[in-house]
Design a protein that fits this description.
The protein is built from four helices and seven strands, in the order ααββαβββββα. The protein is an alpha+beta fold. The protein has one domain: Nuclear Transport Factor 2, Chain: A (Roll). Strands 1, 2, 3, 4, 5, 6 and 7 form a seven-stranded mixed sheet that branches. Strand 5 and strand 6 form a beta hairpin.
Amino acid sequence: MSQDNVEIARAAIDAWNRRDWDAALRDAAPDVEYDLSRALGPFRGVYRRDEVQRAWADLTEGFTSARLEPDEFIEIGEHVVVPWTFHAVGREGVEVESRVTFTFTVRNGSIVRVRLHQDRQEAIEAAGLSE
């Protein structure tokens, strides 16, 4: 089951990189929660399914290019911890790079929660495993 969870997380990230918001939410539960309360910047908060697409569009419209590059997919029970790097180029040509970690919680084939953590270790511990 967990490998299926990894593929669900990978497909959501791949769709996000294509700006295919509908596909990015394809495996999301109707009551999915995107917890960005630990984010630094203007998109801090907790978003529901009906809010997250607007937030993604607002985020990406400020860049000429933006993509998420996963470093690895760590399976921990129903969680998939994904440290990644955000690469973007702003309208004035300024390059931006940011590293954070998402934890996808997948139950019965649906993403029920995506939570942002500022570092990999914090995410792994929150998912119930210590290194």
